[in-house]
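Why do we care about 3D structure at all? Because function follows from shape, and shape follows, mostly, from sequence. That is the central idea of this module. The next example makes it concrete: a single protein chain, its amino acid sequence, and then its structure expressed as tokens.
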Amino acid sequence: MKKFSKTWISSKNRKKQHKYRKQADWNTKHSMCKVNLVKELREKHKIKNISLRKGDLVKVMTGEFRKKEGKIAKIDLKNCKVYIEALQIGKKEGTKVNVPFDPSNLQIKELYLEDKKRLKINEK
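And the structure:
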């Protein structure tokens, strides 16, 4: 199998895009899981988007759960999906499961600032 190429720019071919995302290394996948901030947070921290952390309060921008908010319960970097605590669907057997969201469909409303790495961002 070929090594992952960081110099690859883009392609209109959906198959190549999917392959790029699946074969990406962890650093690149982490940068793919960035989410934009609400206008007040952009002005305060002087950044447009930031990597997700467990505990951030996010708002869903598209889909069935549009305009709903919740805290991040889990981030799956392998598949680039985010699970939110309050947003669940019921299965046939009666159990409830968290819904996976794509990070591009989310917006951060409140940052979880108790992380040591997040504190470094505030210092900048």
